[in-house]
Design brief:
globular
């Protein structure tokens, strides 16, 4: 199996697990929102930190990870999409979403997406 496929599968596994737990009511709405947000932010920070780390050090593992920086960034967006999708599924109503979207916490989330 190619390493590229393994990287994509590794990055997708937590999302599959999160969605499975949410669909089977093993995890609550709040837990799913929290975990998907943490994965999104964590992967975004990791993707953004790769280039500065590569410039400071030339370790083999940094050079290897730098080849998959795009996959990490796309996975970050995927987790943000899961986060937004779970939110929309829970709220499901344009009036409520627009009303809550004016709150500072949620407005920053919409702008970030």
């Amino acid at each position: 199996m190619q390493l590229k496929f393994r990287i994509w599968a590794l990055l997708a596994l937590p999302a599959v697990w999160l969605l499975y737990q949410f669909a089977t009511d093993t995890a609550t709405y709040g837990q799913t929102i929290h975990r998907s947000g943490l994965w999104s932010v964590g992967l975004l920070f990791a993707a953004m930190a790769i280039t500065p780390l590569r410039r400071r050090t030339n370790h083999l593992w940094i050079v290897t990870i730098a080849r998959y920086r795009r996959a990490i960034g796309v996975a970050s967006f995927g987790y943000a999409a899961v986060h937004t999708g779970v939110y929309l599924e829970h709220k499901w109503g344009a009036g409520l979403i627009l009303k809550e979207g004016l709150e500072a916490e949620l407005a920053t989330g919409w702008l970030a997406l």
